[in-house]
Design goal:
The protein has 282 residues and is of the alpha/beta class. Helix content is 41%, strand content 21%. It has helices spanning 3-20, 37-52, 64-73, 89-113, 151-158, 181-192, 225-230, 238-250, 266-272; strands at residues 24-29, 56-61, 80-81, 84-85, 118-122, 129-133, 143-148, 162-166, 168-170, 176-178, 196-201, 219-220, 255-260, 279-281. An 8-stranded mixed β-sheet has the order 5-8-2-1-11-13-14-12, with helices on both faces. A two-stranded antiparallel sheet has the order 3-4. Strand 3 (80-81) and strand 4 form a beta hairpin. Helix 3 packs across helix 4. The longest helix is centred in the middle third of the chain and has 25 residues, at 89-113.
């Protein structure tokens, strides 16, 4: 990169660094960026850089592709209802193993290998994600969040660490539940008083035509969302993602954005450039 270009990049990034330093940003990590090794490394580098700049970053992860892979190896078919995974007892065991075990510790190890101070947490720890069985329709052991305890996350942040949270919750009887990662990230962002929620996905953002990436909608006022749902623009797996963005904005998070996790350093492009990345909800 030429000297002038470096200077331009830093000049463009400076006001954003000032804007976010000392603030809490919740990053929901999922999709293709979790299975592509090159993209995975880029996400880890983005998170560490944000932490070094004094941005108090919380990484909340799902793990749908890896859960699907293990279920397939076990000869069990994945089933989805309204964009959410139907979770019977056997599937719940797989979800818990993959999320709280394999993926969570792999992410912590990757961050620590790059000199990041990371700690792995699970929504069951200290009652961080309190839930009950989903009531609107039968989804098995899928939970609705009824409360959060962000104390463990705050303690980690105050120690200069990067909390990495696996999205499993539990009820008062000790039953564990599968929690949609977007839903969990939004609830934690609200509980933490985060200034921004960033959700990585496998598309550029919200598309007017789901088959045409050039129809990206760059900004959406949350009052428009019901109309977009009625028109079918928001459907399937995008329903819970966008519902979480709307809920977080309505409850005090200043910015919520769905970005293209297939882009290298997608988080930095969103956080520190004028062009941004994806669809911003306001």
């Amino acid at each position: 990169m030429k000297d002038r270009t470096i200077a331009d990049v830093l000049t463009e990034a400076q006001p954003y660094m000032k804007k976010y330093t000392g603030k809490i940003v919740v990053v929901k990590y999922g999709g293709n960026a979790m299975v592509d090794e090159h993209l995975k490394d880029a996400v880890m580098e983005d998170i560490i850089l944000m932490n070094m700049l004094g941005i108090r970053t919380v990484l909340v992860h799902g793990g749908g592709p890896e859960i699907n892979q293990l279920l397939q190896r076990l000869g069990k078919e994945s089933r989805f209802v309204g964009g959410l995974r139907y979770t019977d007892q056997e599937t719940m065991e797989v979800v818990q193993m993959v999320l709280a075990g394999k993926i969570n510790k792999d992410l912590v190890a990757r961050l620590c290998a790059r000199n990041g101070k990371a700690i792995g947490l699970c929504g069951v720890d200290a009652g961080m994600i309190q839930c009950r069985r989903h009531s609107e329709e039968d989804l098995g052991l899928v939970g609705d969040i009824v409360g959060v305890n962000v104390f463990p996350i705050v303690q980690a942040l105050e120690s200069g660490m990067i909390p990495v949270v696996a999205t499993i919750g539990a009820d008062g009887e000790g039953q564990t539940y599968n929690i949609n990662a977007d839903t969990a990230a939004a609830a934690l962002a609200i509980g933490l008083g985060a200034c921004k929620l960033v959700a990585l996905t496998d598309i550029p953002g919200l598309l007017m035509d789901k088959d045409d990436e050039s129809t990206l909608i760059h900004e959406v006022q949350i009052s428009r969302v019901p109309k977009l749902v009625a028109q079918g623009v928001i459907s399937g797996g995008m329903l819970p993602k966008i519902a979480c963005c709307v809920d977080s904005i309505a409850k005090g998070v200043q910015e919520a954005v769905i970005i293209d996790g297939r882009k290298e350093h997608a988080i930095l492009l969103e956080m520190f450039s004028d062009q941004g990345n994806g669809t911003l909800f306001y």
